[in-house]
Amino acid sequence: MDFSKERRSSFVHLHTWSWFSFLRGGSSPQALVEQAVRNGQTALALTDWMTVAGAVQFQVAARKAGIKAIVGAEVQLEGHPLVLLCADQTGYATLNRLLTGAHLQDRENPEVSLEQLSDDNGGLFILTGGVEGRLRQLVMGNRYEEAMLWLEHLADIAPKRVFVELVAHRLEDEPRVLNQLTALARGLNLHAVATNAARYATPQDFITHDLLNRIRLKIRYDEPHPELPLNDEAWLKSLDELYPLIPDPNALANAAALAAECEVNLLPGEITPPGALLPLGFGHYNDYLVYLCREALPRRYPDPLRLARAEAILAHELSIITTLDVAEFFLVVREVMEYARSRGIRCAGRGSAANSIVAYLLDITTVCPLEHRLLFERFLHAGRQGTPDIDVDFDTARRDEVIDWMIRRWTISHTAMTANVNQYRLRSAVRDVAKVLGWSAQTATHQATRVLDGHGDPEEVRTYRAALAGVLGQVPLLEPLLALVERLQGCPRNLSLHSG
Predict the structure, then answer these.
(1) How far is it, in rounded angstroms, from Cα 356 to Cα 378?
(2) Are 426 and 456 in contact (CB under 8 A)?
(3) What is the DSSP string of 297-318?
(4) In the predicted model, what is the mean pLDDT of residues 462-468?
(5) Residue 2 pLDDT
(6) Kind plus residue range of the DSSP H or E element containing 39
(7) Cβ-count burial 258-275 (b if 16+ within 10 Å, e if not)
(8) Nearest CA-CA partner of 358 in 333, 330, 323
């Protein structure tokens, strides 16, 4: 790794939160990328708190903007934050193991232990953390010897992959602390890297950051709390804005050198689907799909007139399916449903897949698209990219049997549970903001929800101004309520387990 001398033109940011830190960060991944582009930065790392939930959205935005996306996370390590960056796909897998283990052990307060990190850190770069990091806290408390011992231990865990993080937030005694951190790094032949531990994209986004933290901590605007931000300096600063605050100019160049070592791509050009069974005598999945459909036609359409119409529609669908090369996908879904039925587990395909006669002939769906005049193109058309979307319902009491079989059948490389990202809706946004502004929970929850559209978005709140005023009164805080609710548009509130 080439950690060169001062290069003021090559600063990148290695430590940022988005609002996928769930009630912690104050900006979307897209907003962070846009600010990085305005700053002239060529790379950016997303290190959300205890999650990589925003990584794909972040990489999509970065690719469109033409900058490098670095994947990582800020983990809680025995009471203090530590930043982990993925050097490669191995590091990404390691990070996910650590995060998964932490959340499984304690859903409310997930943590990674030093022992876990010692045993499993392949492909990861380690930054000592920001203002709340253990190393900085020890230095702030003048516990210099203790700080050196802890840093030595961390460096022994991952030789040549530990970096002392210098975070500049214009806090009290910060110049002394940053100088001592720099001296610590030099004393142990470690490199320091400069960041701003950004929690939001621009100074204006501090309002959203502060609001989300108060919602998470369940405190009003007139209440203090030690976890609240100390000031509004944790935004994504440019090189010129950060340079005067960092005592070690090489730390800026070191950040760029470290970024160059990180290569994780979560957006492959193509997806390799799980393989379907192909009986002897069939050279291709297309051939087998055609065979199954032709065999089922007379059974489904015994009437000659309907059979002729069905054959025409089938030929049309098969031409699109084979052109898109998704025959194997249909066969995989068929296998799953055949297994479920063989075990007496109730199942049925639904949604737009019911528009397909192929799905009907494969017993994936039970609705005849001819009888109901359903349009196949609503489900699949020649211009579509990626695999089709076939929703299948299973008996709730026995769905785990199907999932377990799928994991055995296709291995963990081709199976996964899915998470829901629950975004703020109008009602939940008004309820949470009203509580922060001091209204009672009863007023916020029971009264305000009666006048709001349950399917509305936060950005629509001003259309309900009169109705809200009727419940809350024409009070001075009504306008701040509307403005803060609008800030929650698109903001994730929490994760939940998807049914698929």
Answers:
(1) 9
(2) yes
(3) HHHH--SHHHHHHHHHHHHHHH
(4) 90
(5) 52
(6) none
(7) bbbebebeeeeeeeeebe
(8) 330
453: which 2 tokens?
């559209």
**CA atoms within 13 Å, Cβ hemisphere of 313:** 24
Strands (E), 296-386: 347-350
Query: Which residue(s) pair with 68 in the sheet?
Result: 43
The count of other CB atoms within 10 Å of the CB of residue 149 is: 12
CA atoms within 13 A on the CB side of 140: 14
Query: Angle of helix 304-324 relative to helix 285-300, nearest 10 degrees?
Result: 160
Q: What per-residue confidence (pLDDT) applies to 384?
A: 81
The whole-angstrom separation of Cα 21 and Cα 198 is 12
Q: Cα–Cα distance between 118 and 269 in angstroms, integer?
A: 34
Identify the three-state secondary structure at position 219. coil
Structure confidence at residue 269 (pLDDT): 67
The answer for 203, left when phi > 0, alpha when psi is -120 to 50, beta otherwise, is alpha
- Is pTM beyond 0.70? Reply is yes
Give the tokens for residue 5: 């001398």
Q: 9 pLDDT exceeds 60? A: no
What pLDDT, on a 0 to 100 scale, did the predictor assign at position 370?
92
**CB distance 4 to 33 below 8 Å:** no
Range 49-77 average pLDDT? 96
Give me the pLDDT at residue 3, please: 47
How far is it, in rounded angstroms, from Cα 131 to Cα 139? 11
